[in-house]
User: Fold this.
Amino acid sequence: MFWQVLIGNVTAVALLISVWMHLHYKFYRLSAAQSNMAFGLMMGLAALVSMLLSVRIDAGYYLDLRSTLLTISAIYGGPLAIAVTGPMTLAGRAYMGGVGMVPGLISITILSLVSLAVHFLLGRSAARPKGIWIAALTVTAVSLTMSVVFDARGTGFGTISLLMTGLKFIATLLAASVITYFRGFTVERDMLRAALTQAPDFHYVKNLGSAFVVANLNVARQHGRMRSSDMVGLTDFELYPRDIAQKYFDREQAIMNTGEPMVDFEDYLPEENGPGRWSLISKVPLRNRYGDLIGLAGVTRDITERKRLEQELLDSRNLLSQAMAEMSDGLAMFNPEGRLLFCNEQYRAAFPRSAYARQPGAHIADIVRAVIRNAERTDVNTDVDEEWIQASAQQLFLERDTEIPMFDGRWLSLRTRLAADGSALVVVSDITAMKQSEEHLKKLAEDMRGLAETDALTGIANRRAFDNAVAREFSSVARNGSPLSLLLIDIDHFKAFNDTYGHIEGDRCLRQISACLTAVCKRPSDLAARYGGEEFAILLPGMDVDGAMHVGESLRLQLHLSAIPHRASAKSVVTTSIGVASIGPTSFLSTPSELVQAADLALYEAKTGGRDRIAVCPVPTRAA
Assistant:
C-alpha cells in the first residue's frame, strides 16, 4: 500500500508537470511575469495534489514531493513563481495539520528561500544542464538538514527520511530535466515563431489543400486581419477574386504534385484603384521525416518599389539610347583604365577606317594603333613608335578640345571631359563645314584687308598701306643692314589738266600713271602707292640711291612713252617731278617721317627746278 500511494503521488506530479509543459506553449501570448506566475500556480497545484496523495508516516507526519515542486518553482520560475507556490504549499500543509505541521511549515519556508537564492545565483544558467544537478542537490541538502533536525528530536525515522531524500533527489532530477528540455524546446519554437511572424517579408505554411496552417503578421495585415492566427484555415479563394485565387491554387498544387519548388517567381497582382503590386514568390514542398508530402512553405517579398526603379532605369536607358541614336554627334565613354564602355553608331561612323577597333572593351591604345595603321588622320605619321602611341593614349584623360584633320578632307572636333570616377566622356563632332567657313572668312578677311590697303581709284596701295610699309621697312634697315629708298612723285600741272579735260579724264590719267608705277616696280618687295591727290610714292627696300634714281628715270621715260595729252602743259604731255631719298644703316635719320620729309624736299627741288625731272636729297651719315 505504501509504494502504491507513493507511485501514485509521483505519477500525479509528473502528469501536472506534463500538463504545464503543453499549456505553457499554448499560453505563449502571456507576458514573462504572467507566465512565471502561472508556472508558480501549476507547481502549487502539483504540490497540493502531492500532499493530498502523501504517504502517512505517523500522526501528523507525511511524505510527499512538495520539496521538489517548491525547488523547481523557485529556481525555474523566480520570485513571482515561488510567491504563488510557497503560500499555496504552506496553506495546504497547515490544512493537513498534525504534530509535524510546524516542522513542515519551517521546511517549506527554508526550502523556498534557499531555492530562490539559488535562482539568483544561477541566473540564466538555471536552464542549462548544471541547473538540473544544482536543483536536485538543493532539495537533497535541505531535506537532509531537516532530517538531521528531525532525528535530533528522537523520532526514529532516519532510514525512511534518507529513503525519501533519495526519492526527492531523483524526482527533482527528473522534473528539472524535463522542464529544462521543454524550455529549450519552447525557446526553439519561440525562435521559429518569432522568425516567421516577425520577418519583414510574407511567410506562411499551407497544408495539402492550400489552406493556411500558419502565417506571419504581415500576411494577416495584408488581408485585413489583426492577428496571424486569423489566417489559419483560410484559402486564397477567401482572399482574392476567384480567377486570381484559382491561379495561385493551381500553382501550389503543381508544386506539391511534382515536388519541384518555385524559386524567385515574379508575380503581378492588379489593383482596382492603383497601379498594382509586384511580388517575388518562392514556394517549396514540405515533407515529414518519412518523406510524405504534408504541405508547402512560402515566402513572398513585395518588390513593387524595386520594379518601379527598374522600370525607371529601363526608361532612362531607352531614352538615353534613343538620344544617343538620334544625336548628330558621336559619343563614347571610356573607363578609368582606358577601355571603351559604350559608344553610339555616330562615333564609329566618324572614324570609318578604325571603326572596327572601336568596340566595347577595346583599349584606347589599340584604337590609336588602328588610326595610325590605316592613316586615318593626316596630322599623324604612320611611322610613329610605341612610346608615341602610349603618350597619345594618355591624352584621353586630359580635359581638352581638339580639332583633327581626317584623310577624306573632313575635320573632327574631339571634346573630352572627365567624370568624378576617372572615366572619360568623348564627344565627336564633324566641323568640316565650320572649318570651311573659317577658311572662307579668313580669305575674306585677307581680301578685306587688301581692300582696306588699296586705293579704290587706281588699284595700287593707298596711304595707309604706304605708312605701314615705311614703318616696317625703316625698322629693318638697322636690323638687316640693308638700304631703303623712297620716291615721291607729283604730276606736273595736274590742276590745269582737270580744268582742261575734266575730272573724269583726270581720274583716267591717275590710273594710267598708276599703271606706269606698277610697271617699273620689278621686285616683289617694291611698293607703289598713291600718296594723296596727284602724288604717288614708290618704296624700294634694299635699294640704294643709284638704283632709286634708275627706277625714277624709268618711270619718267615710261610716262613720256605713254604720251598722255596735256595741252595746258609746256610739254604737251603729262609729266612728273620725282624726289628721291635713300638711307642706310649709318644714316642720321631716326624716324620714317624724316625719310618722307627728305624725299619731299627733293620733290620740291625737282618742281622748282623746272619739273619733269628727278632730284635727290642727300642724307648725312655717321662716320664708319
The radius of gyration is 60 Å. Residues 152-157 have pLDDT under 50 and may be disordered. The CA atoms of residues 332 and 343 lie 4 Å apart.
